[in-house]
Structure formats: structure tokens, C-alpha cells
Design brief:
Blueprint (H helix, E strand, L loop, with lengths): L1 E2 L10 H13 L9 H20 L7 E4 L2 H10 L12 E5 L4 H12 L4 E5 L9 H7 L4 E5 L13 H11 L2 E5 L11 H4 L3 E5 L10 E5 L13 H4 L7 H15 L2 H22 L2 E3 L10 E6 L4 H11 L1 E2 L15 H5 L4 H4 L3 E4 L6 H21 L1
Parallel strand pairs: 1-11, 3-4, 3-5, 5-6, 6-7
Antiparallel strand pairs: 2-8, 7-8, 9-10, 10-12
Helix pairs in contact: 1-9, 2-9, 3-4, 10-14, 11-14
The protein binds pyridoxal-5'-phosphate.
The site of pyridoxal-5'-phosphate has 11 residues, from helix 3.
Length: about 375
């Protein structure tokens, strides 16, 4: 099987699995306990925190472990100050291409009167419009949330420019860094972000573990109250997963730029060879993208028809976001980019990882050629 759905989830690295198993077998004591076994577990917890902080150029105390990026994102919403200076619910600006679960959580809070929500539009390439950002990021906005890289198109967002606008307006900036971490360098301290979210399973770590990063001295209320994580996230730490996350972060930091270049090269060759054989539209092709992501449409083919054939041929890919695939509605990301509904229904996402080889890409192209020839003729 050729697996090109790494933006949905990546294969846990063997080193991650080994460290997790070792932890399960030998360090099952509660890391909050004072006895020696608990203290040994606690040292592993702090080692993982340091490994993650190092990858993100942060300090260990800035890392709060959560159950994943979804929880970290919701903790960001939860921590907004309930009333602004004028007594109104907080004003939140979010890009219209944030992760679907995050948008949903914000919309739910808006419906409950807990916040006021404004969406930042994106251009036809899927990048947040800086003109719109300049007009909308103004005094009175409590928090701006823009992802570093989009999960469907891979398009990188202008975080440095948005951070400067936030600073000028006195607004906090949250960056969902889930898709960029482990694929390109992400310097939390240098990014200008006050908060960031990420998830281990996108960087060859385990599922069900993620982190919220907090700027130094930024106090942020817990979503789950409790003593753990310095009072910022209650509940017994999921130590095996945290240990796996730490190892995944350490591995991701090794040869990160080299791995990114190699993936970009493979991805570009994949797109070029497909374009030579089939009528292709690549979404976000004209702006900087993650090196591993290709979101494209082949002729007038519907994504479901293509994906079924590819899977039967041994190639796994996705249509838009994993969470929205299966549904009939076109992706909210492509709709925000003003892609026509019929075109968006054809969008396919191929996402590589550092494990993807040139042979995998050659095999993927062969499978696509064979599976799609009859459809492409009809298209
Ligand atoms: N944010 C982005 C940009 C994502 O791509 C994802 C995963 O698909 C999430 C958040 C959710 O992450 P998790 O699975 O850790 O909840």
C-alpha cells in the first residue's frame, strides 16, 4: 500500500513505539506521586516537555500537554476574557480556513453569546488576505487565530505580518501549528504568537496527545481544572503518549530542512508528471506551501470516484480534510478560496511524509495512470 494521507495522520516512528512500550512496562506510576517510582515517571514527563520545547524554540515551562490540537484550540477559546472593556463578549477574528472542529467550537460559542466572531477572508490561493487583516485587526479585538499551514492545501499563512498587526492593535495571536510542526521549522518564540496548538500524530507520534504553547508569563485558564501541568490542565498525565511525543519531536528536529527539501522535490515531481498526463489544477500552487502537500483536481472527475479506484489499486489519498470526507459538502477551505462547488467536489489531497520514497511516488503515479485512464478519457 502506498500511503499519501499524512496530513490526516502519520505512521508512528519505531523509536516512538519502543519508547512508549518501555514507558508502559516500566513507568506506570503516576508522575504526580511523590514516591521514587512517581518521580522517575515525572522525570520522563519533563524530558518530553524539554524535547518538544527544543523543537519549537520555546521553554519547557511554556508547554502544556493536552489530548490533541482540538483540545488545545478549545482551551484557547475557553481562556478568552468573558467581557471586553465595553462590557461586550470578546471579539475573536479567525481565518475562514481554520480546522473544521475549531471553527465549529467558535461558532457554537458565538451562538451561545460567549464571543463575537469575525472571519478573516482568504484569497484565491488560500492565503489570508493581508488587506482584510489590516482592516479587521483593530483595537478592541481580543484574539486573532490563524493557522500556520492549512491542512487541505498546505498553504502557509503570513504569520509574521499578522503578528505585527496584532501587536499594533493590542490583540493576542493564536497559531494552530498542527500541520507545520515536523514539516518545516516552527519557531514559536520568534513567530510573535502568544499561543500555539499542535498534535503528536502529525509528526510520527501517537494519537491522543498534543500541546498548547503559551508565551512566557501569559496566564491562561485551564479547560480541565486540576493540579497537573502547573494548574493549566488537570487529569493524570498520559505519560506513554507524552514520552512518544517527546521522541517524535526529537526525531522531527533531526534533518528537518533536508527532509523538507526531499519531500518538496518528490511532491513537485509528482505534480509535474501528473500534469504531463492528465488535465490538472493544483490548488495553492502559486504561493508557498508545505513541502509534503498537494491538493489538486483532475479534469472534471469527482473525488469519490477517483479515490475508490486509487484505493483498489493500492494508493491511499484523501479528499479535502479527513474530518469532512464522506460528507457531500465541498470543503470549507476551497469554498473560502472561491472555488466553484463542482470544482471543489473534485479536490484530492496527496500528503507525503519523511518516510515517502521516490519509489513510492513512482508507484503512486503508475497506479494513478492505470486507475484513471478510463475516467480521464471520459473527462
Ligand atoms: N488543527 C489542524 C490544522 C489539523 O490539521 C488537525 C488535525 O486534523 C487538528 C487541528 C486536530 O488535531 P487533533 O487530531 O490532535 O485533535
Amino acid at each position: 500500500m502506498i500511503y499519501l494521507d499524512n496530513n490526516a495522520s502519520t505512521r508512528p516512528a519505531p523509536e516512538v513505539l519502543a519508547a512508549m512500550t518501555q514507558c508502559q512496562q516500566n513507568h506506570w506510576a503516576n508522575p504526580a506521586a511523590r514516591h521514587a517510582a512517581g518521580q522517575a515517571a515525572s522525570r520522563l514527563l519533563e524530558q518530553a516537555r524539554a524535547q518538544l520545547a527544543q523543537l519549537l524554540n520555546g521553554k519547557p515551562r511554556q508547554v502544556v500537554f493536552t489530548s490533541g490540537a482540538t483540545e488545545a484550540n478549545v482551551q484557547v477559546l475557553h481562556g478568552l476574557t468573558p467581557r471586553d472593556a465595553g462590557g461586550e463578549p470578546p471579539l475573536l477574528l479567525m481565518s475562514g480556513i481554520e480546522h473544521a472542529a475549531f471553527l465549529k467550537a467558535a461558532q457554537l460559542r458565538e451562538a451561545q453569546g460567549l464571543l463575537r466572531l469575525q472571519l478573516l477572508p482568504v484569497d484565491a490561493q488560500g492565503r489570508v488576505s493581508l488587506d482584510a487583516a489590516q482592516a479587521l485587526i483593530r483595537p478592541g479585538v481580543q484574539l486573532v487565530s490563524v493557522m500556520a499551514a492549512n491542512n487541505e492545501t498546505g498553504v502557509l499563512q503570513p504569520i509574521a505580518e499578522i503578528a505585527a498587526l496584532c501587536r499594533a492593535a493590542g490583540a493576542l495571536l493564536h497559531v494552530d501549528a498542527t500541520q507545520i510542526v515536523g514539516r518545516l521549522p516552527f519557531d514559536f518564540t520568534g513567530s510573535g504568537a502568544d499561543l500555539a496548538s499542535l498534535s503528536a500524530h502529525k509528526l510520527h507520534g501517537p494519537k491522543g496527545i498534543g500541546a498548547l504553547l503559551l508565551r512566557e508569563n501569559l496566564a491562561w485558564p485551564a479547560l480541565l481544572p486540576g493540579a497537573q501541568e502547573r494548574g493549566r490542565r488537570g487529569g493524570t498525565a498520559n505519560l506513554p503518549a507524552i514520552v512518544g511525543f517527546g521522541v517524535a519531536a526529537q526525531l522531527a528536529g533531526q534533518n528537518l530542512s533536508e527532509a523538507a527539501l526531499r519531500q518538496a522535490h518528490l511532491r513537485d515531481a509528482f505534480e509535474a508528471q501528473l500534469a504531463a498526463r492528465l488535465p490538472l489544477r493544483v490548488f495553492g500552487a502559486d504561493v508557498p506551501r508545505l513541502p509534503n502537500t498537494s491538493c489538486l483536481r483532475i479534469g472534471a472527475l469527482h473525488a469519490d470516484a477517483v479515490l475508490g479506484r486509487l484505493e483498489r489499486g493500492g494508493l491511499i489519498a484523501a479528499s479535502g480534510a479527513a474530518c469532512s470526507s464522506g460528507g457531500q459538502q465541498a470543503s470549507h477551505v476551497l469554498r473560502a478560496m472561491n472555488v466553484a462547488e463542482a470544482e471543489a467536489q473534485g479536490a484530492l489531497r496527496f500528503s507525503l511524509s519523511r518516510d515517502t520514497s521516490a519509489e513510492d511516488i513512482a508507484a503512486a503515479l503508475q497506479i494513478m495512470g492505470e486507475a484513471l485512464a478510463p475516467l480521464a478519457q471520459a473527462a
